[in-house]
Amino acid sequence: IVSPENGDAISYKAADGNTYRTTQRWVGTKLVQEFVGDDGSRRNEYTLDAEGKTLTMDVTLVSPKLSHRLKYRLTYQKKQ
């Protein structure tokens, strides 16, 4: 996804055919992506550890189809 460095929103058409209002910006050392569509929103926060070996992605999903906010974390280790 390519977007302006200043964090302005763009229209993004995903592989599933849905279109989202999308922003990407740096917040301190985190890369924050936000996707807003007709059925809710998703926020991804990417953080790289100080050694550059572990990338963590914290995800928050909000939708009227969900009874509450859904949060989960994915962690990726750099291959040695």
Layout of SSEs?
Elements: E1 10-13, E2 19-27, E3 30-37, E4 40-48, E5 54-62, E6 70-77
Antiparallel strand pairs: 1-2, 2-3, 3-4, 4-5, 5-6
Describe the structure.
- This protein has 80 residues and is mainly beta.
- It contains no helices and six strands.
- It is 0% helix and 59% strand.
- It is globular and about 40 Å long.
- The two termini are 28 Å apart.
Main features:
single chain, mainly beta, 6-stranded antiparallel beta sheet, 6 strands
Tell me the fraction of residues in β-strands, as a range: over 45%
Helix count, DSSP H or I runs of 4 or more residues: 0
Name the poorly predicted regions: none
- Structural class designation: mainly beta
- Terminal Cα span: 28 Å
Query: How does the major sheet shape up?
Result: 6 strands, antiparallel
The coarse overall form would be: globular
Q: Let me know the average pLDDT.
A: 94
How are the strands of the biggest sheet laid out side by side? 1-2-3-4-5-6
